[in-house]
Specification:
The structure holds two protein chains of two kinds.
Chain A: H1 2-25, H2 34-39, H3 45-54, H4 61-73, H5 87-122, H6 127-141, H7 144-158, H8 174-208, H9 211-218, H10 223-245, H11 247-261, H12 266-275, H13 279-307, H14 309-315
Helix pairs in contact in A: 1-13, 5-6, 5-8, 5-11, 6-8, 7-8, 7-11, 8-10, 8-11, 9-10, 10-13, 11-12, 11-13, 12-13, 13-14
Chain B: H1 3-32, H2 34-51, H3 53-56, H4 88-124, H5 126-141, H6 144-155, H7 159-185, H8 189-196, H9 201-237, H10 249-256, H11 265-292
The chains are: A mainly alpha, B mainly alpha.
């Protein structure tokens, strides 16, 4: 087990390094001199020289990259140009909000996607299956920010049932907090629920054709036992792996959802960073989502290793 | 019929029939799939609207009118007007141009960058493939939309930059797919034969490998247009795409957000347009996939 984890961590290192290089290279896309972008076209040459020296802009690109990388290893994500403060504490402040939203969205997508996929597989070719597929395809095709606007229009403006936005920490009231997050989490989880439904359906159809399911039927077990104990347990492994890997997609979707519902998370941080030309913030959030994805795929692999005996035997 | 004539006929069938009948089979299979045909009709309608917008639009999409500010749908303005009194239907029709162009152009950029890299990586193999794949893995690790937002932020907000950002962000997906297909095709007998007769590498790649990797790449391209249309709308919604006063569905939604109570119709139509177009491309992509998939034979 330890050997597998160590091996998996080791092969993630080159990918991590390339992500850092890609994120750092974004600076090269800025039109013209970075110091001028920071200080404005009319900036005093002396002030420009100070900025260049302070941020090592007078040094070669690769040296700056190594310096930045070294800082990252010590938890230094750079300094916000707008508020002249380190970015790391801002990330620490906003990350829990986005994780809370993403986790709630994941829960909603699992709660909708898996049962719908199971029923769709069992009732293959029937009205339920077709309807579920139409709903799933619609879920994938609806832009989540528009769905958010429509839900606000209906549930907040028209009916007045749910708050139109904002964030309340669970520490201030667990019910209030989740009432605020219900619409954003549903919006964020809708597309994933659709994808989950499609994958669950296809995994269940694959498993239902297996010999052990036929044997279970021949033994006279009830259809309920066959589906829940034999088929679902085996179909769940790839579904959970997919769910873990989709966590990164949820983080990306959170950018728009947080914008629509005015939630102060990482998504709002990156969008504010874009408009304030706070490039260190944009880089830090981009990097963090990349790191998050690598971490989630690592966890998915470890989870797969634990639950799937075939992988265990082949790896060790 | 003589033996010679029979042989000639068989040869003619071998030479001419398979490609034609294969294409016909794909078209027949596609046309039998009702959902795919619906997708094709939806996409064709939106393409027509985008192309004929100057002829179809009842009003100038940029012309403001203070007498018709935020008017609900009526006989004069079928879909209502916006906060500056502009006709929503006309803006929606012109907005189709920005959205469809962003979808097609960004996928074209992704295709042009990603496919040659994937073909080369798969064909050359060894350390080159390993190095390229590490870069592709790293780019795929950063969520598509976040990478596009970061790129658009550094390039500056405009429709062109949004298309570049989306194209570059989607390129790794095409590279990975092209590489996988190349690994399968490069061990086929006809590629071995081309190599045996001394055909140069570029010719093998362009004439023998590339055409045979195309079907799954075309399916991916169709599905990617759907993703790119949503992503462009998202960038425009965030203010990083098409800039005012030119209309785009995403920027129309961005404006509509501020008038949800006073003019809810402003938020409804652009969303429906995005939804239908994306649904059309998704149905079309799924249909193409089923029609081109030999497993269904």
């Amino acid at each position: 087990m330890l050997r597998f984890v160590a091996h998996r961590v080791l092969i993630s290192i080159p990918t991590l390094l390339v992500i850092t290089l890609v994120v750092f290279s974004l600076q090269a896309l800025l039109p013209g001199d970075i110091a001028r972008v920071m200080m404005g076209e009319e900036a005093d040459p002396a002030a420009l020289a100070i900025i260049r020296a302070k941020y090592y802009l007078d040094q070669p690109f690769f040296l700056r990259y190594l310096r930045w990388l070294w800082g990252l290893l010590g938890g230094d994500f750079g300094e916000s140009l707008r508020i002249r403060q380190p970015v790391a504490p801002m990330l620490v402040d906003k990350l829990p909000v986005t994780l809370h939203l993403a986790a709630f969205a994941m829960l909603i997508s699992l709660a909708i996607g898996i049962p719908a996929g199971i029923v769709s597989a069992i009732k293959r070719g029937k009205a339920w299956d077709y309807s579920a597929n139409v709903v799933a395809l619609s879920g994938i095709s609806i832009p989540n920010f528009w769905l958010g606007i429509m839900l606000i229009l209906f549930f907040s403006v028209h009916l007045g049932w749910l708050p139109p936005g904002g964030y309340v920490s669970p520490r201030e009231g667990i019910v209030e907090s989740h009432l605020h997050l219900l619409m954003p989490a549903f919006v964020l989880g809708a597309a994933l629920a659709a994808a989950m439904m499609r994958h669950t359906r296809s995994a269940m159809l694959g498993v239902m054709r297996q010999d052990y399911v036929r044997t279970a039927r021949a033994k006279g077990l009830s259809e309920r036992t066959i589906i829940l104990k034999h088929a679902l347990r085996n179909a769940l492994v790839p579904i959970i792996t997919l769910g873990t890997l989709q966590f990164g997609t949820l983080l990306a979707g959170a950018v728009l959802t947080e914008q629509v519902f005015n939630i102060p998370g990482l998504g709002k941080l990156i969008v504010d960073g874009v408009f304030n030309r706070d490039y260190a913030v944009v880089q830090a959030v981009t990097l963090l989502t990349g790191l998050g994805f690598i971490l989630m795929s690592l966890l998915a692999d470890i989870g797969y290793f634990i639950v799937n005996p075939k992988v265990r035997t082949n790896t060790l | 019929m003589t033996a010679v004539a029979e042989t000639d006929l068989a040869e003619a069938e071998l030479i001419e029939e398979p490609p034609r009948s294969n294409a016909r089979r794909v078209v027949r299979r596609f046309m039998r799939n009702r959902a795919a045909v619906v997708g094709l009709v939806i996409v064709s309608l939106f393409v027509l609207v985008a192309l004929l917008a100057p002829l179809l639009a009842p009003f100038d999409p940029l012309k403001t009118n203070w007498l018709t500010v935020r008017k609900p749908p009526s006989a004069a303005h079928w879909l209502g007007t916006d906060d500056l009194g502009r006709d929503a239907l006309s803006r929606l029709m012109y907005g189709a141009r920005a959205s469809l162009m962003a979808g097609v152009v960004s996928v074209f950029i992704a295709f042009v960058i990603g496919v040659p890299i994937g073909l080369l990586s798969g064909y050359v193999g060894k350390w080159f493939d390993g190095a390229v794949m590490r870069v592709i893995d790293a780019l795929l690790a950063v969520p598509f939309l976040i990478l596009a937002i970061a790129l658009a932020a550094f390039l500056g907000p405009s429709l062109t930059n949004a298309m570049i950002a989306l194209g570059v962000s989607a390129a790794p997906l095409f590279a990975r797919l092209a590489r996988g297909q190349t690994l399968v095709v490069k061990v086929e007998e006809y590629v071995e034969a081309a190599r045996a007769i001394g055909a140069p590498h570029w010719l093998i790649l362009t004439r023998h490998i590339f055409p045979n990797t195309l079907p799954p790449l075309l399916v991916q391209a169709t599905l990617s247009i759907a993703t790119a249309i949503i992503a462009e709308a998202a960038l425009a919604f965030l203010g990083l795409g098409q800039q005012a006063p030119a209309p785009s569905w995403g920027s129309m939604l961005n404006t509509a957000r501020s008038f949800l109570v006073q003019a809810p119709w402003m938020a409804v139509w652009p969303g429906i347009a995005i939804f239908l177009t994306v649904l059309g491309f998704n149905l079309l992509g799924d249909g193409l996939h089923d029609a081109l998939d030999p497993k269904d034979e």
